[in-house]
Amino acid sequence: MRLRYLFLALAAFTAPALTACAADEPLKKADRIVFLGDSITQAGVGKTGYVTVIKNALAEKHKDLAIEVIGAGISGNKVPDLQKRLEKDVLAKKPTVVVIYIGINDVWHGEKDPARGTPPDKFEAGLKEIIGKIQETKARVILCTPTVIGEKKTGTNALDAKLDEYAEISRKVAKDTGVQLCDLRKAFADHLAKNNADDKEKGVLTSDRVHLNEAGNKLVAETILGVLDK
Q1: Is residue 24 classed as helix, strand or coil in its secondary structure?
Q2: Minimal CA–CA distance to 84: which of 94, 97, 74?
Q3: Cα–Cα distances in angstroms (integers) from residue 179 to residues 14, 88, 100, in the given order
């Protein structure tokens, strides 16, 4: 009896670790990866966009796997928009992997009119609903933190504090739901700290403080690949 209780306790202790490892599984043949997001992801399917860079990298590295990459970004989207179109634009495509990159508009659109943004509680609840529905299909989920609205030193852009709050919500959601986190906000902050000596508001990783230039797309692609294809 004592051994039985010990076994049950050990199983309970190790279960979360096993779940975490399952999310880290390697890419496999005929994987279908959907990138869900806003205008950054919509533009990501362009010639130098991050989705295209990832697609080309995977095709080169895993020639035998025939991995399919699908962009599902729509300009202006926030978390509530993703909730509304999840079935049509993601689940209906039967993905095996979904990468969610969202949050900029949830913060940015509320800058002048809070009613146009997404309140923190709805942002968190919406992400959890989206992830839950994807997990029901057994697909792997990678959740990205939002990047930047302005490239000046960390903490000096007008919306840095708000973005940090929403990035922290995304980190919490990833932990609570057991999905992989891709911390793009940290990657951008680290890169800009080293490569923006002139403290430019734009032009290092973005064209307009938000949307990615070629260098920004490359950084996003490399950071996501570091999580997607370890």
Answers
A1: coil
A2: 74
A3: 17, 22, 11
**Which two structure tokens, joined as six digits, stand for 63?**
């020639």
Q: Which helix (H) or strand (E) holds 51?
A: helix 50-61
What is this structure's pTM?
Answer: 0.89
Residue in 167, 189, 194, 218 with CA at minimum distance from that of residue 54? 218
Sheet of strand 140-144, all strands in order from the earlier edge strand to the far edge: 68-73, 32-37, 97-101, 140-144, 180-182
The DSSP output letter for 68 is: E
What pLDDT shows up at residue 8?
36
Instruction: Kindly tell me if the per-residue pLDDT of 60 is higher than 80.
Output: yes
Q: Is the pLDDT of residue 78 over 50?
A: yes
Query: Model confidence over 122-168: pLDDT tens digits?
Result: 999 999 999 999 999 999 999 999 999 999 998 999 999 999 999 99
> Could you give the domains of the chain?
27-228 (3.40.50.1110)
